[in-house]
Write a structure and sequence with these properties.
Low-confidence stretches: 460-486
Shape: globular
Largest sheet: 8 strands, antiparallel
Strand order of the largest sheet: 13-14-10-9-8-11-12-15
Number of helices: 18
Radius of gyration: 31 Å
Structural class: alpha+beta
Distance between the termini: 91 Å
Mean pLDDT: 87
Length: 486
């Protein structure tokens, strides 16, 4: 009599589908293999409830459904990240994240409950990068560049395939071997190659020559890093890297160079920086939130999203500020419609800067399909209008004023570092009952910055209280506050 069973034999002994037995062992309904790798003892099989095994499966899901479910979990828009494919589900099965139930191993059937559990994991993006390799087109999408630019990256030796797959294109050329690249290595390229202008690469339009085409491969030079190169990757100073070498005995040993200028193996350095959390694999794309509404007249503000934003603020109040990034087609159409009729940027929340607001003259200056297959949009506005956004939900520009009268001891208006104030309605010196301002200017805008610099460079001259005659015009144009505080 048989004493050990493999999965097919165990399923036959209980008269259940093999897929049901596989799921039962993975979910704990049936005991784990106890007689060797993927082998069960007779006692373990006969003690298993066959009805419970049948009830646990409830029908497997196909790889296409699983791929769509995981893509849905990633959210929209999928900027710089390809959709999950049925082949990716096969890689997740081989990584042990999903249980193979039946079907072709490259495009397996899996359990829908397990797929839904995986879709709810907060580290789903990192898991996909770690376990699912990418083809050249997918890698270019993940990097946000054109396929021709990614081919240049491969030519320069910055990344190498980790495997390959044979794809049968039938009438389009038969079987073709397609290289596969580690998604983590692809995502890390902008981190470990900080000298490359990735923004320019990501905004190249069709037909333009890649800046990488002018570079020549240098295998020996690319494999080595000086201390300054390590510091540049980690975003720290050279002294910090010297300190890491002294404090961490596992820091990579020099592979070449002199004691004064040691050279380190690039791969070893990147692995050490990752292991010690000095750098991280980018998963989510940074985004900006724009609250845009009509500059004048009624109209509810609209909240829009811009991915991978680049904010270029002018130091000259006569110049132009610019904001560029990728937008969904519907958001870009809405933005173009609002700005064509005159729009106020009530609130701009972007990484690396305080919330900004612009009361008027916001325009779409550029719009085109870029290398990442997204719609690249550029906004511009006169820099002198830029200011700090109000903390209110509706947004608006906070404005400072230069007072006609020197604030008295009873003044409760908020004093600013530029020597302006934010007047309150009940202040007897600067409230609504008096003319409070020589000039309104956006909070922390170009004018505010210029005033602060002027007061820092030269000592203040004490002046007594003075009021301007109500009939005389102010020395500068009075800019009334629009939708903000002031």
């Amino acid at each position: 009599m048989r004493e050990t069973y493999d999965e097919s034999e165990a399923a036959g002994r209980l008269r259940v589908p093999v897929a049901a037995w596989r799921w039962a062992t993975a979910s704990g309904v049936a005991p784990a293999a106890d007689a060797g790798p993927r082998l069960w003892s007779r006692t373990a099989v006969e003690s298993t409830d066959a009805e419970a095994v049948r009830a646990a499966l409830r029908g497997p899901a196909g790889a296409t459904w699983a791929a769509d479910r995981l893509t849905e979990a990633l959210g929209e828009p999928l900027r710089f990240r390809p959709r999950v494919t049925p082949a990716a589900v096969g890689h997740l099965v081989r990584a042990g994240l999903l249980t193979y139930l039946s079907g072709e191993p490259a495009y397996p059937d899996v359990h829908p409950d397990q797929v839904n559990m995986l879709a709810r994991r907060r580290d789903l993006l990192a898991l996909l990068d770690r376990h699912v390799p990418l083809g050249p087109d997918q890698a270019a999408h993940r990097l946000g560049v054109r396929r021709t630019d990614f081919d240049q990256v491969v030519r320069l030796g910055w990344i190498a395939p980790v495997g390959s797959v044979d794809v049968d294109y039938k009438r389009q050329g038969g079987v073709t071997t397609v290289p596969l690249y580690s998604a983590e290595d692809v995502a890390l390229l902008p981190v470990i190659r900080p000298s490359v202008d990735w923004h320019t690469l990501r905004t190249l339009t069709a037909g333009r020559r890649s800046p990488l085409a002018a570079l020549t491969p240098d295998p020996q030079g690319e494999a080595r890093l000086l201390l300054a190169g390590v510091a540049q990757i980690a975003g720290v100073g050279r002294a910090a890297v010297v300190n890491w070498r002294r404090r961490h005995p596992d820091f990579p040993t020099p592979a070449a160079g002199a004691p004064v200028h040691p050279e380190f193996d690039r791969r070893q350095v990147v692995a050490w920086l990752l292991a010690h959390d000095k750098i991280a694999v980018p998963t989510a794309v940074p985004a900006a939130t724009l609250t845009v509404g009509p500059a004048l007249g009624p109209g509810a503000p609209v909240v829009l999203r811009m991915d991978d934003p680049l904010l270029d603020l002018s130091d000259d109040q006569e110049g132009q500020d610019r904001l560029s990034g990728w937008m969904a087609d519907t958001d870009a159409d809405t933005l173009a419609h609002l700005t064509a009729e005159g729009a106020a940027l009530r609130r701009l929340t972007a990484p690396g800067t305080t919330p900004l607001a612009v009361p008027d003259a916001v325009r779409v200056t550029e719009r085109f399909r870029a290398g990442s297959e997204g719609l690249h949009v550029t906004l511009g506005w006169p820099s002198h209008l830029r200011g700090t956004a109000s903390p209110r939900t509706s947004g608006g520009v906070i404005r400072h004023v230069l007072p006609y009268t020197t604030p008295s001891t009873g003044c409760r208006c908020a004093r600013q570092t530029c020597r302006g104030i934010i007047p309150t309605a009940y202040c007897t010196d600067h409230g609504t009952a008096v003319t409070p301002a020589m000039e309104w200017h956006p909070a922390d805008g170009t004018r505010c910055t210029a005033l602060r610099r002027a007061h820092t460079a030269a000592p203040a001259v004490a002046r007594g209280p003075r009021r301007r005659c109500a009939a005389s015009p102010p020395a500068r144009r009075l800019i009334r506050p629009l939708g903000g505080e002031g």
